[in-house]
Design goal:
This protein is α/β, with parallel strands linked by helices and 580 residues long. Among the domains are: 3-94, 2-Layer Sandwich (Gyrase A, domain 2), CATH 3.30.1360; 173-252, no CATH class; 443-571, Isoleucyl-tRNA Synthetase, Domain 1 (Orthogonal Bundle), CATH 1.10.730. The protein is 47% helix and 12% strand. The longest helix has 26 residues, at 226-251. The relative contact order is 0.11. It is found in: Cytoplasm. It comes from Shimia isoporae.
Length: 580
């Protein structure tokens, strides 16, 4: 039930009738006609831009269109007032029955209230985290993991067929460094003194990996040349790190559908196949790039290389895919990986990268555009840095990882639910401050607490109603006489509930799950505001002497809990039944 879609349909019907009557010319395109909440709530419940967007193509004054349209809309029983403002904006005040009906719809649909078929079953691949398998996930990965997972859930909620994917970067030199670091821990497990030189990984998390390697091979690799053990230790170490990463993700409530290995692209012809696809389109050539301005990227060489003509697909410069010595650049396997995604039949691709990958956006979009002939859109979302604080001061925790604060450190401090919600209280491309004291604070300033408290309050109302012998199951509340919800404060809550279906579609269309967190805070604020008004006006309290009246008011509260539960479900957060 999307009231905004319903009322837009009413506006389109009225415009069509105006065409039939000769007020508007035939052939007008209504696609840009919108019905939205007004910028100022004092102006009404909904507003339409119809007169403004149709004036030019209709060769009419906006006000002339709006005046006739207002009269048409006012004939509908759902519209109490339709009035023109300014040069042709049209504001509507809707009947209380329309808002009251939202309560019934929410109770009948439960957690599916607001669920949409907007995605029409299109296959979308969301790739996120994709950290190098060289250690535990750090706090930066945490933000990307939460964002990607919430986005995947949001897209599922609005009708997409979603695949959650992790790209294992196990094909580069960093896994050789991992293997050498584990080998040092292996020697240490045999009682030897070792030194971790610059470029190795000194974190304590590799101690049990070295011991496990000792248990597996005994002394077989002690004193042996690297050529003897490097390949085996690399595979052993990578598997151990991926087990650790999977455990980290599990602690955060993240489960992937697929883990894709970069290593599987090498020596299998898959990189060559992807580049052959580009070559068949005239997009691969031999050439010398101009030296870039400013800092030179590591893959630039002042000699002839194999280049991808990425400028044909929106990039700033063409990009090397093979070095002059015949080895692949870092970009080549990434092209092959995305070629694999396109070949798997995805309709849309989304990559979630850290902020340090900003320079990769244009080249990757160019590659996907070229590989799919412009048929598969790629959206790349960058997640900005997270700064940790405690009592307002920068906070450092354990150095188990050697150089950074881990995901598990954060989750162990505040829990998965708090971690996930807080990570979504800012847009993904905005920096985030994470204060361990503030995120556990029980106040309105803490959005996690405020939303959870609203849900817990409703649960408390349900418990008290049942103790008083008032039936409060959803199927009973859905049949309550909701026409009794006629106070402005109650209608205000219902109005906010009505925004939910529209909100999730907008969030899904823009790939912005933070909108859900923002909305839940606003909805919680409306519930708390109604609760506080009940302290002064007893007629607004949820439990009254009259059973029927109680059930109507409890129905409103319960519908708020339904939406909060659905929204928290998208964010991957468990709704609180009570606050402790």
């Amino acid at each position: 039930m999307n009231l905004f879609t319903e009322m837009r349909g009413l506006v389109i019907d009225a415009l069509t009738a105006m065409q039939a009557e000769g007020v508007l010319p035939e052939g007008l395109d209504f696609k840009n006609v919108a019905v939205e909440p007004p910028r100022d709530a004092l102006h009404g419940d909904m507003a339409t831009n119809a007169a403004m967007v149709l004036a030019k193509p209709a060769k009419m004054k906006p006000r002339d269109i709006a005046d006739v349209l207002a009269g048409k809309l006012a004939e509908d029983t759902r519209v109490e007032i339709a009035e023109v403002a300014g040069p042709g904006f049209l504001n509507m005040r809707l009947s209380a029955a329309l808002w009251q009906g939202v309560v019934k719809a929410a109770l009948e649909a439960g957690n599916d209230f607001g669920r949409s078929d907007m995605g029409t079953g299109k296959k979308v691949n969301v790739e996120y985290v994709s950290a190098n398998p060289t250690g535990p996930l750090h706090v930066g990965h945490t933000r990307g993991a939460v964002f990607g997972d919430a986005l995947a859930s949001l897209l599922d909620f609005v009708g997409y067929d979603v695949t959650r994917e992790y790209y294992i970067n196990d094909g580069g030199a960093q896994v050789d460094v991992l293997a050498r670091s584990v080998y040092l821990r292996y020697l240490e497990a045999h009682g030897q003194d070792v030194a971790f030189e610059d470029g190795t990984y000194p974190g304590d998390y590799l101690i049990p990996v070295g011991e496990a390697l000792k248990d597996k091979v005994g002394e077989a690799y002690v004193g042996q040349d690297e050529s003897v053990w490097l390949v085996d230790v690399r595979e052993f170490s990578t598997a151990a790190m991926m087990d650790l990463i999977r455990e980290d993700l599990k602690a955060l409530g993240v489960e992937m559908d697929l883990f894709f290995s970069e290593k599987s692209l090498y020596g299998t012809g898959r990189i060559e196949s992807a580049l052959e696809s580009l070559q068949s389109k005239g997009l691969i050539y031999e050439g010398v790039l101009e030296p870039p301005k400013g800092k030179k990227p590591e893959d630039w060489e002042p000699r002839e290389q194999t280049l991808f003509r990425s400028t044909d697909h929106g990039d700033d410069v063409d990009r090397p895919v093979k070095k002059s010595d015949g080895s692949w650049t870092y970009f080549a396997p990434d092209i092959a990986y995305h070629y694999d995604k396109v070949s798997r039949g995805f309709d849309e691709l989304i990559d979630v990268f850290g902020a340090d990958h900003g320079g990769y956006v244009k080249r990757m979009k160019a590659a996907v555009s070229a590989l799919s002939d412009g048929q598969v859109p790629l959206d790349i979302k960058l997640t900005q840095l997270v700064k940790l604080y405690k009592n307002g001061e920068p906070f450092k925790m354990s150095k188990r990882a050697g150089t950074f604060v881990t995901l598990r450190d954060v989750v162990d401090q505040v829990g998965s639910d708090v971690t996930r919600f807080v990570m979504l209280t800012r847009k993904n491309d905005a920096p985030l401050d994470f204060d361990f004291d503030k995120v556990l604070e029980q106040s309105k300033d803490n959005p996690v607490f405020y939303v959870q408290y609203a849900h817990a309050r409703v649960c408390s109302v349900i418990r008290k109603a049942e103790e008083a012998g008032i039936a409060a199951a959803d199927e009973v509340l859905a049949r309550a006489d909701i026409a009794q919800l006629d106070h402005d404060a109650e209608i205000t809550v219902a109005r906010k509930l009505a925004e939910w279906p529209r909100l999730v579609e907008i969030a899904g269309r823009t790939n912005e799950p933070h909108r859900v967190a923002f909305y839940l805070y606003e909805l919680a604020s409306e519930l708390h505001g109604l609760w506080n008004k009940g302290n002064e006006d007893t007629s607004l309290r949820f439990i009254q002497d009259n059973v029927a009246t109680s059930q109507a008011k409890i129905a409103l509260a319960r519908s708020v809990a339904v939406v909060i539960s659905a929204g928290l479900g998208i964010l991957g957060v468990t709704p609180a039944q009570e606050m402790r």
